[in-house]
Specification:
Layout lengths: L1 E6 L2 E7 L5 H18 L7 H6 L10 H16 L16 H18 L5 E5 L2 E5 L10 E5 L2 E9 L5 E6 L20 E8 L2 H13 L4 H6 L5 E6 L4 E3 L10
Helix pairs in contact: 1-4, 4-5
């Protein structure tokens, strides 16, 4: 069974193979809606928007918000400040943490409800488990950022998390916190494969903010691989990426 719904301003697809699990599917989508209601900076009554307006003091935020803020601070430290949820105007936008965390939580929820084989895709943030409906390994296509209907690489993550950050769909929404006024033009797509979708997502955002140096950052992360496409259409991959292209 497979279903796609528009949540968080993007189509989110959940496919559950070899099982009929409508209740699990509904619970997963309900969780994503709840996350969006709390963390979206575009919803006027979300907790994030209320914090940015000063209506909620830092000491009074929810436990879920505390978790996200702590993880964001940890990621900022781990990436030498290239990951920062605070915008140049002083407001916060935790999207770089929240999407990966939400998909990670959905994967946990589906597993807890007895789903062994599933695939979740939220705008390029992907979690998977088990086998596809044909009994083979789930595959992920990396898009050509210059020709959106073309796939330039197919990988087989085998349960690992995948996240792609880029400017080719949503425009310049990622910035370098060390030089916020400078537009990121060197690269157009950064795909990171990691132990889970949460870590893949947060490090993909940071690696993209680093520009061409981001792929070296991913190379140095134990258990991670990456694939970057620069503005000239030239791809660079980490040393172990090739193993992911074999079924």
């Amino acid at each position: 069974m497979r279903e796609t719904r528009l949540i968080m301003g993007m189509p989110i697809e959940i496919e559950i193979a070899h099982d009929s699990a409508q209740d699990a599917l509904e619970a997963a989508f309900a969780h994503l809606v709840a996350v969006d209601e709390r963390f979206s900076p575009y919803k006027n009554d979300s907790e994030v928007s209320r914090m940015n307006r000063g209506e909620i003091a830092p000491a009074d935020v929810s436990e879920a918000m505390r978790e996200v803020l702590a993880l964001a601070e940890r990621t900022k430290s781990e990436t030498d400040g290239y990951f920062d949820i605070r915008r140049p105007d002083g407001s916060i936008d935790p999207s770089g943490i929240v999407k990966g965390l939400a998909i990670h939580d959905v994967a946990t929820l589906l597993t807890a409800r007895g789903c062994e084989h599933f695939f979740v895709n939220a705008g390029g943030d992907i979690a998977m488990s088990g086998e596809n409906p044909d009994g083979g390994a789930w595959s992920v296509g990396i898009r050509n950022p210059f020709t959106h209907d073309e796939i330039v690489k197919v990988i087989y993550p085998r349960g690992k998390g995948v996240a792609t950050s880029g400017s080719y769909i949503r425009g310049a929404h990622i910035y370098n916190p060390h030089a916020p006024a400078e537009e990121l033009r060197d690269i157009v797509s950064m795909t990171v494969i990691g132990p889970d979708v949460l870590d893949a997502d947060r490090f993909a955002t940071a690696a993209f903010a680093m520009g061409k140096g981001g792929i070296a950052f991913v190379e140095a992360l134990p258990g991670f691989e990456g694939y970057v496409i620069d503005a000239q259409g030239i791809a660079t991959m980490t040393s172990g990426f090739g193993a992911l292209t074999r079924p």
